[in-house]
Write a structure and sequence with these properties.
Blueprint: E1 2-7, H1 13-20, E2 25-30, E3 35-37, E4 42-44, H2 47-54, E5 59-60, H3 68-77, E6 82-85, H4 93-96, E7 103-107, H5 119-125, E8 130-137, E9 147-154, H6 161-184, H7 216-225, E10 232-236, E11 239-249, E12 259-261, E13 266-268, E14 274-281, E15 288-289, H8 290-297
Parallel strand pairs: 1-2, 1-6, 2-5, 6-7
Antiparallel strand pairs: 3-4, 7-8, 8-9, 10-11, 11-14, 12-13, 13-14, 14-15
Amino acid sequence: MRVLLAGTPEVAVASLDALVDSDHQVLGVITRPDAPAGRGKKLRPSPVAVRAEELGLPVHKPEHPKDPDFATMLAELAPDCVPVVAYGALVPQRVIDIPAHGWVNLHFSLLPRWRGAAPVQHAIIGGDAETGACTFSLVRELDAGPVYGQIRTPIGPGDTAGDLLDRLARDGARLLVRTLDEIAAGAVPRPQPDEGVTSAPKLTSDDARIDWDTSQLVIDRLIRGCNPAPGAWTTLRGQRFKIGLARPAPEQALPPGQLRNTDRQVLVGTADRALELLQVQPPGKKPMAAADWARGAQLADDQRFDDDE
């Protein structure tokens, strides 16, 4: 089939590469306009745009897919299907209807669970034992279209959102190509069940704040689910302090938020058992090993997170 990939972030690049290596004809990519990035806030193209240019593919950057010029361009290119991976903009129905086989979305959850912008993060924070990816036909309602295919993967006790996204991006790219093969052969999607729908909105900074009065398990999931973004955080000495990685310390118990620096570990208390801090990011510094930070932090014996006095 003639296809035009719609995608923007790094997680969509694997799908672009897989499509280029497949039997389908890739006409180019649709991606979000260049956006400010870095300290200088210079405009930079999306990872998908960068990769497409490396591959010599045309790159289309509409301000919004509802723009009349974009609909005209899409009709002129006449793709058989538009595969979508984290494009980042809502697509109007009149544009969805242009390709003969519509727009087919690769979504990183086991639909109908975790519809929305941050399904992998919510799966970890919610304590799911497994997650996966689905391909489905795009409709106006968010992530509610009928499903073509699905893959599953367990969520390990140390998996971060970044780990899972990397894994699902690779495995999902193969699922997307297989789905397009099946559509070309006449496959028909099946409706999603009405039961089991959950929402996965984008995580905000407020969502990522750690409450040390909750359990070790809940805090561990929050830290892993917010890694790499938006980053779980707390306060120390009145300043925001990020925690990138931690792990349960089963035999240890400390008051919630209290820090203890031993020769081998940096521990912090929760509502039940302690966590061992592995990677932290003090204010104004880059992420570092917690043990390295603690050696120079001059922690008091009763030092606590969220104790700003």
